User: Fold these one by one.
Assistant:
Number 1:
Amino acid sequence: MSPENSDEVVPLLPENGSPTTSTSEKQPSVSGAVFNVSTSIIGAGIMSIPATFKVLGVAPALILIVLIGVLVDVSVEFMLRFTYAGGSTTYAGLMKESFGRIGSVAVQICVMISTLGCLIIYLIIIGDVLSGDPSGEGSVHLGVLQEWFGVHWWNSRDVAILIIVVFVMLPLVLFRRVESLSMSSAVAVLLAVVFVGICSAMAISAAVQGQSKSIKLLPQLDNQVDFYNLFTAIPVIVTAFTFHFNVHAIGVELGKPAAMASAVHISLVICALIYFCIGLFGYILFGDSIEADLLVNFDHASGSIVGSVLNDIVRLSYAFHLMLVFPLLNFSLRSNIDEFLFPDKSLLAKDTKRFVLLTLVLLAAAYLMAIAIPNIWYFFQFMGSTSAVSLAFIFPGAIALRDIHGISSRKDKIIGATMIVLAVITSTIAISSNIYSIGNSS
């Protein structure tokens, strides 16, 4: 929802230049924005990147990562340019300026689907890492806590997730400003680097010892089905780069268009490098046996104590990373639901009762669905083909084409139209391929 006067600023944000901001509040920094943007980008998507290398081959996967990263940079630039040209302080407000209520509702629905879906995935992964998956096919999959202490009621999946939700997630999601999460975001980025670093070291060690797996530089297309399967990798990478729902929350607090643009550039380069490293070295380490969830490959027992310790560190570093990413996505989910349900209410930060109640309800809902849903990987793929691709490419491209402020060049409109066409075509093929795969597996 776009504000109608200068007094209505982004939710959870005091006015820039106010005494509160200048004296008692820490000013947002570019480095803090880089950490928050990078943390928003690197989430559950990183675990599926190596599987895209198996599907695409190394060279096409690298090209696709770079291409999507560049297109994401362009789409965010569209968003920032039209945001500062108008009066919007949210993604929904930006779409409302161009397409009215229908546009804002479309964004809110896509954000809610993407963020809530990711939060559920995060809790499921955290539960699997700590306590395993009791419904594992063929064998019981034990988590780190059960491997260390044996199977007890207190380290069961339900209890372990509940403890994390109450004692880790709840304190973090109660922060009312994105900038307050910059330190936790910095730690999350560090954990992602540790995760990638250990995987890379293990892959290099395996290569030196002659134990690395064979990899493909190009995809092997034996039939038409294999060709269509290539398109299933695209939504995974698109989802891995989608952070557009946090652009306004981070950018408006930063308050400087050029600074936010720089933060986005730096973050995209960092994340693209991380994705390529984890994709390449994960593929080298496990080859064609790599799973859609990379952590599953690290669950196998190692032949040495050092190997077992490294496996545990890899799984735990990733689980802790997701714990710290969770609040950023919850931030956008909460603000969009509040804007959708209570468009005429006061700012969420100024209504403590509504803020706390909405926070608790969303946290409880994510927990209950994470416990109830055993496997949502197909949902993760469909999310990348629908809500994520809409937020990342279709909506920003449509804003540039609509151009209500008269600031789009002909080049901008061509790029916007191209993004929309490519997004629709690839998503349609990916959805069809996924439906076909589900039909064959059932």
Number 2:
Amino acid sequence: MDMDFIPGRSTSQRSGQSAESKEQQTTSGRTPARSETESEDDAEMAIKAEEYGIALPRKLTPVSCGRPRKARHMSADLCVQFICEAMCKNEWERAAGLLTSHFQTLVDRGSSRLTTNAEIVWRLGSEILLNHPKSTIEDINVFHETMKNIGVKNYLQISLEQIYHLLCRGDTDEVNRVVSSLDSWRYGQHSIKQNKLQKLIQAYRGVLNYRAWVDRRSAVIENDLGYASQSSTVQAMGSYYRQATVAFQDIVQFPGVWDPFILSYVDLLESSGEKEEAEKVLKEYAYNTKNPPNPNAHMYLYEFMKRNGAADELLIKELRVLYSMTPSHKLMLKFSRLLDRSDSEDNQKLSLHVLFDLLDFSGWKKNVKAWSCLAKRLKHFFHHDRRAWILESWQPRQSWWPSYHFTSFLAKNDWRECVKLGLKKAMVAGMLQGPGCVYFTCIYRSGRNDKKTALRHMKTFIKKNNCGNIP
């Protein structure tokens, strides 16, 4: 790869000032004005930027006196910017090439600078390796082992990152090797931070024991083992079960987000018939105030309760908490249906609010199920004289939903992509705005040949039932 666009060269050129300008800077205490040579260098950098399709940041002249930064430090900082830009654009091969040139910063003699550079290279390299289409297990191991030797203070964190990469690749044997090598590792005093990291490493060991337990259980269920083999397999399952349980119990004692470990722990307990213990773990994980707010914790508890036949009231209670945290969650459609089935009028009213809140988010704008549910709810409430409920949800959105959901451009685009989506949105737009609204009119014109009968019935209903007719 041609690396001429790395800004180190032009930076070094700019650092060469004349003796006269240096003397002026020393005597006056101020930075001298930019010379013609510097302007030419900036122009040269701009031309190189055009060639490589990147925008080089303009060098700002420092306004304060003091010790100037070294040219290689400035070059390294710009290189990091280019790497981040490439990563944001998913240009992983280009990012890897830039990172290769950035490795030279690890020869810096300053201890503080070396520590910072090592951590930057480690974090950028980990992300690139995880997403690079051509990265291999060998590349991952070589990179992390190298970084461990350079950034010894981050040894455990780098090892955890290595374990994560290997688990994503499914290489459990290599994970076992890395975890085993960390059992007796220490650096300096055994601090609290290191203790927590050790617990996290043991939790990953628990994941390995859980996976081994799952494999043994599958072999026993399939009944393809002899009596002696089956007996030894069952004994091994008990050992893996105890080790995994202890590791998971230790990690959940610390406040944090432990979703992968909780899922493994709950499956381990539930598959072993300890459903009460599994429910206790999930409730503690969801409602312990020491843990940060986590919508997934309530989703896991809801799914567990649903699997085990919990009553609708309990499911509604759990989803209500999830709704207060994440109104755009995928379970909100299910929440709306549960509320609609309830005998409580407050729940039925809330079901309409849930659908409106859901469609406030752009990720649901083209979801046919969401628009179908809203159209059905609105039609039902018009039939049962619940128009005040509709107005309560519609009035706060009356000023911005038409331009957000119901423009002529969106109508044509929705009809072209999905006819059903266009019909459902047209029904909702007509009931909220009346039959003369832009969206319904465009859909009516687009479908007057193919969906003439359906649109005619829709228009008849909308004329009698829309928010414009509500006193």
Number 3:
Amino acid sequence: MIADHITGNIIENPPKDGKLSVPIDFEWFETDKKRMAKVAEDGTEFGVMVGRTIKDGDVLAETDDKRYYAKIKTAQLIEIPVSSMKEMGRLCFELGNRHLSLKVESDRVLVPYDHPTMEYTKKIGFEPHIIEGGFDGFLIVKAHAGSGTIIPGTNKTTGDLAEEEQEAAADKDWNAAEAGHGHDHDHDHTHDHGEHAHGGHAHADGEYEANGVLHRPDGSHSHDGGRTWHTH
């Protein structure tokens, strides 16, 4: 099934029509991807291409008896308390080069958990804590856009090109499916985008993934599924 527009939000406007609401799980770093393949809780496969950032509760598709909505999964966050504007400015300056999604509040900053960032904020004098939470109100940085190395003669990085290749491949597959089935979005379109979504990289010994970022024991990390690695 193709989900190409949002018809409402079950959190902002709870439905009363008796339809079964079925969640489609999203990680926080997937909410602004232009193209992706997802599977709903009832096993229905979707090609998601709504063209804007997806919010928790957004309705992505409906049938006669079901409503499919986005459920943004919670994750581990680093909560960094601050007690003055001077501390806030210093913290945000220090975090600025780490390409992190974040949420700034009057007395704290929240960022997705990863061990190097946790240790770094301790090193520069803050007292971070790990909490569980959602990503409402975050300034989202794409999981791998902008990462990698600059390509000479362009304003793009290897990470930018990798994302463009993934989206082009998804467009080609989904356009072929649409041509084969007309515009009846009730048809079930099945595509394996796993290789594009993850770059086909298996995790080597010692590597681990946290919030869409791969980490190595030497402190380096990758935002593009293991294509490129860097440290801060």
Number 4:
Amino acid sequence: MVTSTSRLLTAICALAGSAAAVTPLKVQGKDFVNSKTGDRFQILGVDYQPGGSSGFSKDSDPLSDGDVCMRDAALMQRLGINTIRVYNLEPTLDHNKCASIFNAAGIYMILDVNSPLTNGYLDRTAPWTTYTNAYYHQVFGVIEAFKAFDNTLGFFAGNEVINEDATRLAPAYVRAVIRDMKDYIAKQSDRAIPVGYSAADVRDILMDTSNYFECEMKNSTSSRADFFGLNSYSWCGDASYKSSGFDVLTQDFSNATLPVFFSEYGCNEVKPRIFTEVQALYGEEMTQAFSGGLVYEWTQEENEYGLVKIDDDGSVTTLIDFDNLQKQFNKLDISRITTSNSTQTSVTPPTCDPSLISNSTFYNAWNLPEAPSKVSDYIKNGLPNKPVGALVSVTGGKIPQKVVNHNGKEISNVELKVLASDAVNTPSPSNDDSSSSSTSGTSTGTATASSSSGASTKTNAASSLNGAPAVALGGVSGFFMLLASLL
């Protein structure tokens, strides 16, 4: 006879191997959708590059310091962020702690595969000179470093490569990079991870750029972008849907057949920023064309776009822009914007044709360059000496860094809350200076997360950020409910 104690121990062992992780997203028509439930996913995001370009090197990038990520993820939970974008990454560094922290916090990651270092980017003026085998050690290295994380939403193959300074052939090279990345993911990843492009808001060529990446090529279906990002700063101060030109953008992208979102937004010509564009972006008109957006940017740098200011000792000041954005997020009807819509998911892309391109200066052919000599081998056999990413255990709780608001008042209750399995962080009106963070999912500040969902993910349930063992039990309340049912 099996005793209650034995059954309890068996259940605990089963739970220890379970995942407190977000669910991978997939592209369906013009929406990102939850791969389990089919619910629509709208990006409530922020661009995350602490220290700016000078904060990146071969020895350090935004996702290589677990203590910093823990601090920032806890604050992002309060704000209501569900996605970050990271521009510069060094694939050889250890990103397991940071990726696991954001996963536990219910926050997805969109990652640029390029870097400003040598062999890390495409030269827009002569892309054929940088489209090399060495370049793909950076591109495929980032894929390898992050493919195991369920909260890896997607990869950007390029950022503002195509603009007034770019050579006419630049679009073909970027689309070739998308092709090579998608072919690599298809062979070397256990799941499909979307790949897209982030465009500058150059209106003369914006729709040509979108059409170029969106259309389907009969002989190269893998080169089609899975999503399209737009860096747009046309809404400044207390503008309006029409005065900002958001109405034009909505019309332009209303017939898109892939997810479109603002990969950067948040004009700071008028300070402080009040973020009234949030209500338009997530309003009924724009959500038919856009999948949300990422505010530029998390930390205060010389350009003064920050939501928070980081002091030399690691302490944080939440700026007035943080509070203003939080108030706008808290007004949103999350239920409405995440409701699935069959008209959004059933669209089909157009066939590539020169008629899709209206500007005479834009490249109107889809003759993509052949991949560099060793790339086909990398795709078939994997990148040599590739990095390996795997989720590690995360223990939630109060962060050690001091946090004050823009008035100098200390915020004493900032904590990382490990969400229940499949939960995503959402805004909550209770997240203010006098209340604790409240996020979606059944969780507590002392819960832990140990692995990604999916059998293929490697689990390190015996390690945690502070070196102490941690076990994923799906939240304390879930544990006691289980205990009561077994005894």
